[in-house]
Amino acid sequence: MGVSIHVQVKSTELGKWREENGVTTGGNVWIKQIGYLPPTHEYLKWQLIDANTRQAEIKSMVATIQERALPALNVCSSKDSLAAHILGRPEITWVPDWAADVALWVGNKAAAEVLVGGHLESRAGLREKFIEYWRTEVETPSVIRPNDRLHCLAWLVRKHGIEVPGMVYPSFKRNA
C-alpha cells in the first residue's frame, strides 16, 4: 500500500470572483503532489505495507509535510501574502492563465501582466491567435465569459485593462 500526498489551497471567495471575472472557474488557488512543490520535481510516495518500516515512512511523511507543504501553505495565509509572493510560487504559476486569475483576485495586476505575457510567449503562434481574440473583444466585447480558453484570456485582458508586454495596441480604445 502506497500513500501519496496532494496539497491544495481552495477559496470560496476566489470561486465566486472567477464566476464573473476569471478565465477559469472554481476556487482552487493551487493543487500539487507534494513532491512537485520544490523546484526539483520528484513524485513522492510512501510504502506502508511493511510493518517493519511503517513508522519510519510515517515519520518521513510528516517531515515532508513540514518541510514542503507548510511553507507553501503559509504564503496563502492571506491575500496580501499571496499577492506579494505569487510570482515566486511555481505551484501557483505552472498554469499561467489560472495564476493570472489569482493575481487579479489578490490585487496584483503587475503579476497578472507578467503571467499573461509569459504565457503568450510559451508556444509559437499563441500570441497571434490571442491578438485576434483580443481585437474581437475590443471591437465587440463578449457579454459572458467565452468558452475558448485563449479567447477567455483575451476577454480577461480587456476586462481588467491588463497591459501585455511587447504588444502593440491599435489606435482604437482598448477598454471600450
Description of the structure:
It is a single chain. Helices cover 52% and strands 9% of the residues. The chain is built from eight helices and four strands; from the N terminus they run E-E-H-E-E-H-H-H-H-H-H-H. It has helices at 12-21, 54-75, 79-85, 90-93, 96-105, 109-120, 126-139, 149-160, and strands at residues 2-3, 6-10, 28-33, 46-47. The strands form two sheets. Strands 1-4 form a two-stranded antiparallel sheet. It has a two-stranded antiparallel ribbon with strand order 2-3. Helix 5 (96-105) packs antiparallel against helix 6 (109-120) and helix 7 packs across helix 8 (149-160).
Quick description:
The protein has 176 residues and is mainly alpha-helical. The protein has helices at residues 12-21, 54-75, 79-85, 90-93, 96-105, 109-120, 126-139, 149-160; strands at 2-3, 6-10, 28-33, 46-47.
